[in-house]
Design brief:
Shape: globular
Organism: Methylobacterium currus
Oligomer: single chain
InterPro entries: Mito/Outer_Membr_Metalloprot, Peptidase_M48
Number of strands: 19
Structural class: alpha+beta
Number of helices: 15
Largest sheet: 8 strands, mixed
Protein name: Peptidase M48
Cofactor: Zn(2+)
Radius of gyration: 24 Å
Keywords: Hydrolase, Metal-binding, Metalloprotease, Protease, Signal, Zinc
Distance between the termini: 19 Å
């Protein structure tokens, strides 16, 4: 949790945080809204004949990656800050930069220049700006299993830039906004203007969907021309699909968004596999797995300790000195704005975040100022939670029953919100959650160690199960081990081969 405090202003209730938004999945939160139309982001149809893999990289193509480009771009600084800052890992950065160089030489625009930045975020993501800035999260590096998988993601993002997707989308969005404004203001028809604007969102979504498929196809061709295994794209998307399923099994899945701009991952896997088969049979190109694993050995995995850590159902934030344990059945997700939790069926959710309060502002007023829906009259209750002053209240919506609390721990104020779908009061679980809030002791803070990727060599007799048992502080270790290492269920590990573990 990045812990950017929510400012509460009692005199400006309209500016407070709407509760429904607080329970949106983390993926729905846009870190830098001002950059939304500039960033060609992926979580991460041209189908003509393909040139042979060899001899298509022009040897005279210049080196393209501007590693030493000064980071004085304001948008760049904001974006990097919103993703936890820049991640310093010299060997990983060198690998990403080298792969980028090799890919760019294989594109139709070998004169393009790119500056690579690693982001200190556990989220699996990569994206490019039209300016030629290319971003890769450490979460993506941890998930990819070889150099060709990384190259597949980078080729896809480079394709967005070379195909001028971001520029086209920006132009289309501006044109749509202008038409809606003319209808609403000039023709004095706000209702039709709003309808046109809403319809334009669907057009933009479909447009972006087409862009994604086009970038996939172009990316696979670039991957092959650069000499990488073109099936790396399908392998990485399969890993992405499997890690998403793991989150869903923990109750951390997001509901489908009808305006989602990315095609479903299974659909993309099918398309990139077909594109790779048009180039040749599996075994074409290199995956360079050993070099890749050597480059990412030791990189951080999961949450940054400075933003708090999740250990099972327990959340600990050493810097703020606060910890709690979620009720049984909840899976936790530490996002940049809050700790979110949900049950596997999605019928119960929780949120824990920090709010910045004015001097002398009472806890009851904190709840009123940060909750737009009606709070039940007479439901406010002052209480002590393990020695911390708190105020609790109840709010009932059409589809959800909410229990709210504002808790003051030292000089910090936190919100604890639990929602249950329907009319069932979540109070029993809410009460257990409140009772778990506690200070982080200095001993516990010192004992916390960040997780990282450790590459080990399988010995004779090792199995996926025995290696997974060496993983620490991760949920469903066997499945996590299999996903991180691209192993299907039941596939044996091979003695002498390197594999990724997550350890403290």
């Amino acid at each position: 949790m990045g812990w950017s405090f929510t400012r509460t202003q009692p005199a400006a209730r309209g500016a407070s945080v709407r509760p429904a938004a607080a329970f949106l999945p983390a993926a729905a939160l846009v870190p830098v809204a001002a950059l939304a139309l500039l960033v060609a982001a992926c979580t991460a149809d041209q189908t003509g004949a393909l040139a042979p893999v060899a001899a298509v990289v022009p040897p005279e193509a210049p080196r393209t990656t501007g590693r030493d480009r000064p980071a004085n771009d304001a948008d760049h600084a904001k974006l990097v800050a919103s993703f936890g800052g820049e991640y310093r890992a010299a060997s990983a950065l060198r690998l990403v930069s080298d792969v980028t160089d090799r890919l760019v030489k294989a594109t139709e625009r070998p004169d393009e220049t790119y500056a690579v930045t690693l982001l200190d975020s556990p989220v699996v993501n990569a994206f490019a700006l039209p300016t030629g800035r290319l971003y890769v999260t450490r979460g993506l590096l941890a998930l990819a299993d070889d150099t060709s998988e990384l190259a597949a993601v980078l080729a896809h993002e480079i394709a967005h830039v070379t195909l001028r997707h971001a520029s086209a989308r920006t132009e289309m969005a501006l044109r749509s906004e202008l038409v809606s404004k003319v209808v609403a203001d000039v023709l004095n028809d706000p209702a039709t203007g709003a309808l046109l604007q809403d319809q334009s969102r669907f057009v933009l979504a479909r447009f972006s969907r087409t862009q994604e498929f086009e970038a996939d196809q172009t990316g696979v061709r670039t991957l092959a021309r650069a000499g990488y295994d073109p099936f790396g794209a399908a392998r990485f998307l399969t890993a992405l699909n499997r890690t998403t399923a793991l989150r869903a099994g923990a109750g951390l899945n997001s509901e489908p968004d009808m305006l989602a701009t990315h095609p479903s991952t299974p659909e993309r896997i099918t398309q990139v596999t077909q594109a790779a088969r048009r180039i040749g049979a599996p075994g074409l190109g290199v995956d360079d797995r050993n070099r890749y694993l050597a480059a990412i050995d030791g990189i951080a995995y999961g949450d940054n300790p400075a933003d708090g850590l999740i250990r099972g159902r327990r959340f600990i934030h050493p810097r703020l000195g606060v910890a709690f344990e979620a009720p049984e059945g909840f899976g936790l997700d530490n996002t940049a704005r809050a700790v979110l939790g949900t049950t596997p069926d999605g019928n119960r959710r929780l949120l824990f975040d920090a709010v910045e309060t004015n001097a002398g502002q009472g806890l009851e007023e904190v709840l009123k100022a940060t909750w737009n829906d009606a709070i039940e009259t007479g439901s406010f209750e002052n209480r002590m939670l393990n020695g911390f002053p708190a105020v609790t209240a109840v709010s009932k919506g059409k589809e959800w029953f909410f229990r709210l609390a504002a808790v003051r721990v030292g000089t910090n104020t936190f919100r604890m919100i639990m929602a249950a779908k329907g009319t069932t009061d979540p109070e029993p679980a809410f009460g257990r959650w409140l009772a778990s809030i506690a200070l982080v002791t200095p001993e516990e803070a010192r004992s916390l160690k960040p997780l990282h990727i450790q590459v080990v060599t399988a010995a004779p007799g090792d199995t996926a199960e025995s290696l997974a048992q060496r993983m620490t502080a991760v949920d469903r270790p066997l499945e996590r081990f299999q996903v991180l290492n691209g192993l299907d269920r039941g596939v044996a590990v091979r003695a002498g081969q390197p594999y990724k573990l997550v350890v403290e």
